[in-house]
Structures are given as C-alpha cells and as structure tokens.
Amino acid sequence: MKAFFRKMTGTVALVIALAIPLTACGGGNKDTAETTAKTEETVTDDTTETAGDPSTEETTVETATGEPKMGGEVVLAVAQEPDSLDPYLAAAAGTKEIIYNFYEGLVKLMPDSTFEDCLSTSHEVSEDGLEYIFQIREGVKFHNGEEMGPADVVYSLRRGAGLDSADGTPLIGELGIIDTIEEVEGENAVKITLSEPDADFITYLTAAIIPEGYEDQAKQPIGTGPFVFDSYETQQHVKMVRFDDYWRERPAYLDSVIFRIVPSADSAMVDLQAGKIDIFPYLTMDKADLVADKYDFIESDSNMVQLWALNSDRAPFDDVRVRQAMDMAVDKQMLLDGITFGQGTILESGMAPSMGEFYNKTVNETRKYDPEQARALLADAGYNDDLTITITVPGNYVIHVQTAEMIAAMLAEVGVTADIQSVDWGTWLNNVYEGRDYDSTVIALTFDYCAPSTVLGRYSSTASNNFVNFNSAEYDSIYAETQTEQDHAKRVADYQRLQDILSEEAASVFLQNPGVQTAVSKELGGYTTYPMYVQDMYNVYFK
Fold first, then answer.
1. Closest by alpha carbon to 136, among 187, 200, 204?
2. What is the pLDDT of residues 188-245, one digit of tens each?
3. Distance between CA 512 and CA 304 in Å, rounded?
4. Which phi and psi angles does 405 have, rounded to 5°?
5. Bond from prior residue into 316 cis (ω within 30 degrees of 0)
6. Best label site of 237, 386, 431, 502, fewest CB within 10 Å?
7. Chain mean position to CA 51
8. How many angstroms separate the CA atoms of 95 and 98, rounded?
9. From CA 430, how far away is CA 175, in angstroms rounded?
10. Is the distance from CB of 513 to CB of 225 less than 8 angstroms?
C-alpha cells in the first residue's frame, strides 16, 4: 500500500538489470561557450557508474575576455517569494531555484541531462531493481562544520519517505516507494530497499541530505552545497555566501549572491537597464534590445509545460466535448508568436520535448485549431453562445496573464465569454492548486526530476497534485503498469500512449513548452543552464 501514498510532484526529468541507461531527459541545452563541459558516457558494466565524478571534473572553461577570478557579489532576480527553505517542504519553483545552492543529494542532475554520483561515490542496483547500495563520500562537511556520514543520509531519506511520520505520508511523494533505509554494517554505505521496482528511482535521489536530527531548515537551512544561507528579508531578497569548506576541488568563485525578489517583470526591466541586476532568467525577446549593451543572452530549453488547465470536476469542463471545443478554439501558434515571440514548442499533451524518447512527437499531429468545429462541439453539448467561464490566473506572472487575455479573445470568436480573475500567488496556491476551487487557470508546470513519472503521474486520478481532476480508467491502468515495467521499450510506448489519452480526452488545453532566455551581465562567465528549474551559481564568476 505504500505506493498509494506516492505523490507526484511538479512545480509546477538506469538500472543495468532493467537495461536503462543512467540518463533521463533527452533534450539538450543551448548554452554559450562559457557554460559547462558535457559528457556523453553511459553505464557499461555490472556496477552502475556515473558519467563523471563532480569532485574532480572542472566544468568552467576560460572565456576570450579573461580567466575566472575569485570574489564579488552577484544579484539575480527571482519572481517568487520563497515558501519554505526546508528542502522537504519547499513546493514553489522559485524557492527551488535558490535552495539548489544550499543542498545536495546522493546524485546530481548534470547540464547534459545525465545523473552523476554526488554525495555518494558509486552505487549498485540489484538485478530485481529493489535494492540500492550507495557508497557515501567521505570528507564532506555540512555548513555547521560537522562531517556528513551514512547516519545523515538515513535520517534525511527516512524523513523524505515519511518512514518516521505518524501516518507514514512522505514529504517527497516519489520517495514513498522506499521500504527500508539502513547503514551497511562495517562500511561507509547505505542500503535502500524499495517496495516495488521503479526505473526512475535514481532520479529522485537528488533529494537533499541534511544533518541528522536538525529541525530548523525552514529558517536556517544547513546543507553541503557550495553556498551558505546568510539572510532572508521578506519581499526583498535571500542572500547566500560562499562555503569555504566545500568538498569539491575548489569553493565557489563568488563571495556572495543576492536573490532579489522582483514584484513584476516591469520593475525588473528598470533594474536591468540601470545595471542593478546581474542575471535575469525570464527575459522576453521583445525586451532584449533594451539591454543588449550590458547583457549577453542565453537561450535554453525548459522543463515547463504551459497549459490552460480545465477543472474536470466542474461544469462545463466535466463534459469532454466542451474540453475538446476549448482546445480547438485556441490558436496556439498565435499564442506562441504573440506571448513568447516564437520561442518554444506548441504542445498537444502534458510532456515537453526535453523528456527525449518519452516525448510523443506524433501527438502534436492530432487536434488542430478549428473554431467552427469548436462551435459545433459546444452546440452538441448544449451551449449556443451562452457559456460563461472564469480563468483564474496568478497576477505576478505576466506571461500567464497575457495568455489568459489572448485565450479570452479567441473564445469570444466561438461564443464563449471568459472572465479573467487575477489573484496573488498565495491565493492561487491555496484556492486553485491545493483547494481545486476554480473553473480554469493558466499556469506553467515545472518538474523536480527528469523522470517521465513526475511529469505524467499528476494526471492519475489518485495523485494528490492532480489539480485538474482528470479521471480516466485507461490512463490509471497504463500509468500503474509503467511504474513496475522492466522492459524499457514497453515503458516508452506506454508513456507515449498516456500522452495520446491526455490529448484525446483534452485533460486540459496544453499550450506550449516555453523557451527560456536569460540575461547575463557581460562581466560574468560560467552561467549554466539545466533541464530543470534551478540557478546553479557554483561556476559563475567575474571575468
């Protein structure tokens, strides 16, 4: 029954015995020459090895303008107030951008979408996929000066898996599959036993390792990462400073980093033009020319799926004909051109191309923009120019507000009136995401892990984060099979079929996989993009 409690998270991408390589997402990043070196090695022997050892691999390369130098402070803009600095309680994507620099897991996601041992030095997997043994890295210190050991790993993962909680509910849903975690007697190692095989399990072990018994993470986070938490001022900033005892071959280049919380894209642009922000990860193409003299621009793929989410538990969206009509009424190419200036990929289902072979390319050949057919479907469902709906949208995200406005204009063409309700982020989280009290909403979902289950698990009818209330017996059955399927080709085919179902039944109106453009000061080098929503400041330096 433990699998019942697995909660697929999305914040909003192995095993030798299962013939799965030590990779997850297949999408590449379009980085500049100042980003990280990439490796393409995979597992070839009976012990699952990584593609490289982050303790010895120097990833930053010199630029034409000078070598990296130590020191300096960088200001990076973030769009969200942190919800919790505790890595096991943080839900907002904006929070995870920041705390990525505080914490590390047994494995680490690399920029080229591979996973490498991090706080472990190697790991082995049993033939049945149920047992994992991790050799724990020695000489790693926490920010409080204490040395990390197997007991800290056991404590952290037991906490995440809910093994010590009163009701057994995991704090990180994907870890709910863990049955036992124990130290290996006489070795600097930890053994994890699962209740059932999960080919994506290795990707979940990016989960933070924290000191045994430490309970003040939310206010004074302590991890093993390259930066130490310094201060947090509400609605202002989070500041971190370099951890000089960091375990890799060198500490971070920068003295400190300030994550400035910006109330809007407009205010961020003012600060950008004034040179008060060094890195801005959300720049739109229409604003690039305004700051081209001071910033370089890095384009990358994202792990986001922007969608117009339809609440299937509420009329009229409990009728599949209405949901299909909404999908046909939206001109997605116009949205892509008008909102993200052509940056991104149009979607017809809930997975982004960055998931590589799991992504169903053919699903985008299904339903197309067809307002006349949309009218016919609405009439068949009993609506003849008399349907009014509400689109609730978080007002701090300009891209979602503008998308909602364009959708409302398109719906008017098929006789549907859409009232747009703009709310603050906290209200959206409480009422829409958690309370499911809404008609429809526009949002972008991001995913904590480069694993297909974390992307598509949220549409299982029992998933706690299935906030669109999608319910399909066929979907549930196939999804359950994917979690234990040992044949890799079969898993790929099943995940692609799940995307077909989401499209056929219009679980929501899937819009686009937005491209991401980051403005980086011309004085900086080493900025790196990842196939997930993080800001890695370890290799950033002043030239």
1. 187
2. 999 999 998 888 899 899 999 999 999 999 999 999 999 999 999 999 999 999 999 9
3. 8
4. -65, -40
5. yes
6. 386
7. 22
8. 5
9. 24
10. no
Cα–Cα distance for residue pair 106/110, rounded to 1 Å: 13
DSSP state of 507: S
- Residue 430: CB atoms within 10 A of its CB come to 13
In terms of Cβ atoms closer than 10 Å to its own Cβ (0-12, 13-18, 19+), residue 23 is buried
- Map residue 524 onto helix, strand or coil: strand
Residue 346 and residue 512 in contact, taking contact as beta carbons nearer than 8 Å: yes
The CA radius of gyration of the chain, in Å to the nearest whole number, is 23
Mean pLDDT of each 10-residue bin along the chain, 543 residues long? 38 26 35 28 31 40 62 93 93 88 95 88 93 97 98 97 92 92 96 92 94 95 98 95 97 98 82 91 77 87 88 97 97 91 89 86 83 97 95 91 96 97 94 96 81 90 95 96 85 95 96 88 92 89 95
DSSP class of residue 284 equals: -
Structure tokens at 251: 């500490």
Residue with tokens 């009229």, as numbered in its chain: 316
Could you give the C-alpha distances from 225 to 186, 211, 366, 520, in angstroms and in order?
27, 13, 45, 23
Q: Where are the alpha helices (DSSP H) in 381-487?
A: 398-412, 425-427, 452-456, 473-482
Q: Which two tokens stand for residue 496?
A: 């692609």
Tokens, residue 42: 């995979």
Instruction: State the pTM of this model.
Output: 0.71
Angle between helical axes of 473-482 and 488-504 (0-180°, round to 10) = 160
Nearest to 222 by CA among 204, 209, 205: 209
DSSP string, 70-84: S--EEEEEESS--S-
Compute the distance between CA of residue 168 and CA of residue 161 in angstroms, rounded to an integer.
8
- Cβ neighbours around 87 below 10 Å, total: 27
d(CA 23, CA 27): 11
The residues that bridge with 525 in the sheet, in sequence order, are 541
Angstrom distance (rounded) from CA 239 to CA 488: 43
d(CA 341, CA 362): 24
pLDDT tens, residue by residue, 251-283: 999 999 999 998 877 788 888 889 899 999 877
